[in-house]
Every structure is written in structure tokens, then in C-alpha cells.
Amino acid sequence: MDDHLEYFTQNPFEAFIIFSNEDYLPFNSKGLNEILNTQFEIRKNAKGRLIQSLIDYSIIKSSYYLDRYSNVKSTFEMESTFEYFPTSTTKIRILNATEFSLSQVGDFDKSLAIQRNISLPLSRYLQDKVQEDNIRNRQGSYLFLLGKYEEARIIFEELYNDPSANIPKTQIFNNLAICYQKLGQKNRYVSLLLRALEQSQNNLDLDPLAYKDELSIYRNLFLYYNSIGDSTNALPYIRKAENLAINKSDTTELAFIHTYLGQYYWQNFQDYRRAILEFEKAERIFKSIDNYAREIDLLLNRSFVYLEIDSLAAAENSLNETLNLALSRSDTPNYIEALIYSTELALKRKKPEQAKNILEEIALYPLDDLDFETLVRYHTVFTQFAATSGDYRSAIDSFSPIVDQVIERAKGTVDSESGFWTIDPVYLDAFETIVKLFLETDQKLKALTYLDRLKTINDASLYNSPLLRAAKLTEQELSEDRRLNTRVTQLRSTYLKTTGSERLSIKAEIDKITAQRQELANKVINEENESITPMWMIQRSLNNDELILHFTELNDVLFLSFIEKEHIELIDIKLDESTNLLFEKAANNLANGSTSLSDLYELYNLLSLDQVPDRIKNIIVIPDNYLYRIPLEVIPSRRPNSPTSFGSTRYMIEDYTFRYFTSLSEFSSNNRKKASSLSNDFSAFAISYFDQFENQNLSSLPYATKEVRMVDDVLTNFESKSIFIGDNANVNTFKSEIENSRIVHIATHSEVSEKDPLFSTIFLKSINDNGQQEGQPLYAYELFDTQLSNDLIMLNSCSSGSGSYLQGSGIVGISRALRFAGAQSLGLNLWIVNDKIASEFAEDFYKNLNKGYSKSEAMRQAKIEQIKFGNADPHFWGAYSLIGNPSPIIKKPAKTPIIFSFLIAMTLLVGYRIRKTAFTY
After folding, report:
1. Model pLDDT for residues 497-508, shown as the tens digit of each residue
2. Beta-carbon neighbour count of residue 103 at 10 Å?
3. For labelling alongside 462, which of 16, 59, 555, 703 has CA 20 to 30 A away?
4. Got the DSSP string for 186-236?
5. For residue 575, how far is the Cα from the chain centroid?
6. Model confidence over 142-182: pLDDT tens digits?
7. Buried b / exposed e across 489-500, counting CB within 10 Å, b at 16+?
8. What is the pTM of this model?
9. Nearest-5° angle of CA 320, CA 321, CA 323?
10. Are 789 and 824 in contact (CB under 8 A)?
């Protein structure tokens, strides 16, 4: 063998012939490694491009077989070309190996360039349809991984519609379906899966294993409906999968189904009994087929659930079982994770000495193989133990850098489907731990800073949406961003495993890579990332009559901060079952027209709103969770006579002006008037009838068109105005006008996607390829690509302000898309509003704007008008909310009596001068 190695390394032509034979490769891995090492040395001294190309071929193929893809990257970056390779199928194969290897190290842009410029033209020239289809399929996959879902969809649709395509139909089905899902085209996604289901059922007679495709589709439908919060439609599909797996005696698939069901019952309903039951069923199956990895994972899941519900005896039994199983397999990482849970159990039982012993055992093991989340849990538990000794400051000093890394990691960890950060419970535990440490040491400012940083994580995550980044960055930049993100993720895990000077050097490298990623992010958002505003600066910006109420829900605690110019008070409210029920009941009744003043007044007391000082006239609200659904202005400030005595009580709106922001950072950056120089003062879009919207059950809004005409009439102090009604209220016009109008008013239907907020929609019109009018949803993520500077966008549409709630991150939907695109303020309604009342409210609101009132005061006056002269039920006037900049849009005109008096005085003065002149002369 050694003689053969020397011969082939010295004779590149012969090596080329051997490596070109796909069916014959005489070397084992050791031999290939030796060839690879010597070929790099030989290439350095090789003369001529032909010889270099032949050596490159050997390097690429041997590296490809050995999965050493970075070698291919090095070879490719030597500017080796393929021009000397003969035009043949062999050349296509080496190109395939090259572009696949480059994709594995993150160079998707280079892979795509090889495909477009060389591989695809060559396969078409050689009329090699099999190679062409495979290359196209990989091309779609690369584009998908870069977030270029639309381009990937086009490729997969072409393959799907090609009857001679050589890719298995089920594979194309899956690729195309997931593209539809990522693009928010849920109807097409479900339709495609149902067609695939029908096809797989028809194939059962031809292929006994076709049922596996059917199982996969059932599972995908279950996961999809569950992901969008539609548990009613989700469950039947997983039950069908369960029955099919039982009928086919497919125990492995059945175990996975029980795992999914356990997660379903726990995550959706906190039904720990059914969750544990399903987990145990799955465990027994995995144990019987000796699938250790799944068995230990389920044991850890079961232990976690028991700890969450404080079932400590059951947790101890489950953890002991986990520890024994991990020891029997010498599985150090899972053994350490079980020890971390055991430490948490000891702390819950208030046994610090036991916790200390467990932590000392953990210290005996290296932490190298633990993932980031497990490391965060370890540091959190270790800090909680350290705090039991009362040394809070040391605990803070060691734990704050860990939480900082959690925040930075979270900013770059985005769910590629929805564009928001899905908060891991272990991260929330870390936040709660650091906040409580600050409160124990009376550091309210720092506690509040971390609470607000939790809320702003979602802002960065939205900027990192793959849909938005793919629209703004080149393929080269997208590939670079993926590589940087992979590297910084690895470094953050390493950071959590180290201490001392080594940690400082890793932190420096993390900061360097983060800065590089931020440069790419700035191309997406067109603005520099603002640093955290110090709390003292926020306080200094307040007037003496202003108060900020800052809410942050963290696990089972609602933190409420009263922020004044000279004082900060922070209280915590335990969110137990009865408190959550009160919030839920009040919010639901308010939205569905069954308002209970008694429940709302109970919230007034629960939130200590009676402590608002008498001098306060303006309240800035930074809401969270239920407080997005229950605007504070609807809450009675004195005990009502009865739950429905709407006209006899007094509401907070009658005493205060309210305005809302999503975080203190947004308040700091968008609280004062910003100059806008847009060409149009006012643009309005209204649709009353929705017959052209296929597959959408949208009711008519007969007052919508009347509404925009009335608003147009009352805005007498605005000069340039445009209204677009019916077919003229289309997507193209909307995108054009929204960039050029100071005020944009929208009176149509909107739909908030609860789980996929970037796919929230505004329903407008469009013209199809045949020149016919049709309905078209405008997705929230499409608005991210628009640079806005509007003074106000008013979405007088159903539930425009609502959206998916993420603990610590607020509401994400159309409202955030517009704010992040640059709109200074938004007028939104938080629940479905009667068409006629919505129209009347809009008219009152714009009358006040036309008088020069601030936006917040204009909204307040419109609400008081409804209380006094309309329907005082908060359901009818409380839905409207102002988010963002409150400043007036025009200067307040001088009052008519003053002007009239001034003119009379001037007339008398002129008359006096004339009379005096006449007398003198």
C-alpha cells in the first residue's frame, strides 16, 4: 500500500483516473488521509495549471470522502479552476463534491455560484437530466438555508411540476411545503400536504412502506397546527398517526408520537398528568428497542416537569432513575445534567448542604460536552446556591456576565419561521435570578435595566428575521452572517465553561465577531444599534407631571415599576392561578363585549394604581402580556355601583393622558417630536366589501368607505390628501403612499397570526396576471422592507394591535412591523370593534388632531366624548391605543375669540390713527 501511495501522489494523471472511477477506490480512510497530506505539499511546487488542477481533483475527492470539507474550501480558495477538466460527467461529479463541501462550511454563495455558472450549464449541455435535477434540488436547499424562501419555492415548484423530474415526489413535496410554511402561505402549505397524503395512500398497494410517508404527513400537519396554536385541528392528525403506527406495528414511530403528545399536553395545557403518561409510554418503547438516547432524554423531560410543578418526591425518583441509567452507559453529559436538576431539587427543599455536595461532584467533571442551555442552567443553579449564604454581591459579579451572554445569544437566535425569539425556560430562570439578586441588594435601577433588556431582545430578533435579511443582504453577506453566527455561538458556550483571563480573551473575540455581525445588521435596519439609555437619563427626560408604569412578566411574577423624575419604586405581584384567572377573565370579557367593572376595579387595586401621585397628569405605559389586552385607561378609579354601571363610575382616562411604548429604549428614542418632510399630509385606504378575497371569510364593512370620506372632510388644516377606496386600495398604491404620507389611515380587515406574527396581514386589493382585480393579504414582514417616517399610521381594523404574546417580549404583529419600519406612532384597536362605532371614533379623533392636539390628547378626548355622549361601556371606546410618539402633527391654531379680539383691536387702532391724523391736519 505504501508503494501505491507514493506512486499516486507522484503521478497525478494516474491518481485522477483512479479517483474518477466512482465504483473503485482502492484506499481506506488511512490511505486517503496520507494521500491528502502529501498532495497539499506536492501542489505547492507543482508547475502548470493542468497539473495543479489534477492534484486539486485528488484533494477534493479524498476530502469529500473523508468529510474534511474545510480542505475543499482551502483548495477552492487557491483559485483552482476546472477549465482543464474534460467536459464529462466526471467533471460534474467533482463540481458536485466541491459545491456540497463548500456548503458544509457555510460558503453557500460559492456553492450557488458553481451551480449557476458551471454545473447547471454543463449538465444541460451533456443532456444529463438526472444530474441537472439533483443540482437544482440542492440549489433550492441552499437558497432556503440562506432565508431566500421565495427563490427556493420557485425551484421546487418547477421540479414538482416537471413530470420527468428524477427527485422522489415525496422529497419535493416536503421541500415545497416547508417553503410555503416559511412564506406564511398556510393555505397552500396545508393543501400540498393533503395532496401528498392522498398520493401516499394511493401508493400503499405498490409500496408496503408508503405508509411511512403517510405517517410523516400526519406528523407534519400536527406540528403545523400546534405551532400556530390551533390545538383543535392538531390533535386529530397525531391520533391518526398513532392509529396507523399501531396498525402497522411500527413501535419506533409510536414512541415518537407519544413523545409529541407529551410535549403537546405540557406546553399547551400544562397538563402534567397526561404529559407524564405519554412520556412514560414512549420511554418503555425506547427501552424495549434499546434506544438509549431517546430514553434518557425522556427521563430528563419527565424530571423537568416534576420540578416545574414542585412534585419533589416524584422528581427525586425520576432523577435517581436518570442518574443510574446515565452511569450504566458512562454518559457524562447527561449525568451532569441530571446532577444540575438534583441541585435545583435540593434548593427547592431548602437543603443547601445537599446542594453544595452535588455541586462539588459536578466540579469533578469537565463541562466541555454540555450545550449552551445546560451550561446556563448550571450557572443559574450555582448562583442560586451562592445566594443562600447571603453573599449577593459576589453572586451578582459572577452571574451578570453569564446573563449578558444569554441576552446577546438570544438576539441572534431567531425562529426562522416567525422571526421572533422563542424564550427557553432556562433563560427566564436566569433573568429572574439576576433580578432578584439586584432587588435583594436594593439595586432597583439595575433590576429595572435587566427587566427592560429582556423586553428589547425581541426587537433585535425581528431585525434578524431571515425574510428581512434575505431581502436586504447579498448571498455572500448571508453566508458570511451564518458563518459568524455559528462561530459566536460556539464561543459563547466556551465562555460559560471557562474562568479568569481565558474568559476575557474569549469575550474579546465574541465582541469582535458581534461587531462584524452588527455591520451586516445595519444594512438591514439602516440605523446604528442604540446603546442602552441610562435610567437617570430617562428619569431626567420626564416632566414633573409624568409617570412611567413599566410592566414585565417573568415566570410567575409580574414586576411593576413606578418611574418618576426623582423616584423609582418596584413591586412584584405573584401570578398565581387566581390572579391569572382574573386577568384572563377581564381581558376576554372586555374584548367580547361582556365588560365587568368589578373585575377591572379589582385590577386597579391589584396593580396599586391608587398610589399614583396626585400631581401626575400623563402616564406612559410599558405593558406586558395581559396589559397589552387591558389598556389602563378603561380601569375604574373608584368602586363601581355594579359590574355594568358604565356611566356612573370614573375611569382613569378621565384623569390622565395615556401613551404606550414597547420598552424604555423605545420611549427614550421616540418620545419627542421628530421632523418629517413628506410630500402628502394624509392618505386613507378603505375596503367595504371582500367578495374577491378567496378562501377568506371576511364580513362586509359598509362604514369603512364612509369613514375615510368623513375623516377627509374634518382635516381642514391639512392640505395634501388622498383617499383610495375599493379596487384603488391596492397593495402597490399602499406601499407607495405609506412612504410619502405623514398620516396613513387604514379601514379594512386585518388578521393577526398568533404564533407567526410576521405573517399578520392587512387585506388589500391587487391585480392578477390576467389584469383582474383580486384580494391580496399584505404580510407584516413585507413592511419591514419599507423605510417609513410617518407621524401616524392608524389601523382602524379588527384587532390590529394584538398579536402573539411572548413572555418578556410583548406583542408582535402588524404594529411592531410598522414601528420597526420607522413609523413614529400607531393608532390601533385591540379587539374587534363595531364598524359604525369605529367610524365615529375615528371622526372624533381626527377632529381633535385637526385642532392641533397631541395624538395622545386627541385620543383621550375622543374617548371621553364616547363616555359622555356615546356608549360608556369600555368595550366600545377602550379598544383604541396609541403606541409611540405622542406629539401633535400640526401646530395648535390660535383660538378664534383671541384672533377676533386681536382683529378688533387692530381695527380700532387703525381707526384711531386715521382720526388722529385727520384732526391734526
Report:
1. 888 888 889 989
2. 21
3. 555
4. HHHHHHHHHHHHHHHHHTTTT-GGGHHHHHHHHHHHHHHHHHTT-HHHHHH
5. 25
6. 999 999 999 999 999 999 999 999 988 778 888 898 888 88
7. bebbbbbbbeee
8. 0.81
9. 65
10. yes
